């Protein structure tokens, strides 16, 4: 598996277009397309939030220009925010496991 940053960026674009092209404007995610993308690609992030209307809330948060759809530029804001959250999780995890090693050793 070749997991360089350029590949990750290409994947990000491909994933976006796979969902955005399903209905209406093929370069934008409508509510249903966004929901599909979140459920299929980011199910771990949504798993903790079973409350209804969470997709609508995400849509409202992301839709900077208020056209009711999420374009790629708006989508990357979500991905960046989630990536930062992931990084914090890994850093915390790394610190904890180092501390456990010190405590037991
Ligand atoms: Ca669309
Ligand atoms: Ca928009």
UniProtKB/TrEMBL annotation:
Keywords of this entry: Calcium, Metal-binding, Repeat
UniProt KW Chaperone keyword: no
GO molecular function: calcium ion binding; calcium-dependent protein binding
InterPro entries: EF-hand-dom_pair, EF_Hand_1_Ca_BS, EF_hand_dom, S100/CaBP7/8-like_CS, S100_Ca-bd_sub
Organism superkingdom: Eukaryota
Ranges where the EF-hand domain occurs: 50-85
GO CC annotations, alphabetized: cytoplasm
Stretches of the chain forming a coiled coil according to its record: none
Transmembrane residue ranges: none
Name of this protein: Protein S100
Organism: Stegastes partitus
UniProt lineage: Eukaryota, Metazoa, Chordata, Craniata, Vertebrata
Gene: LOC103362576
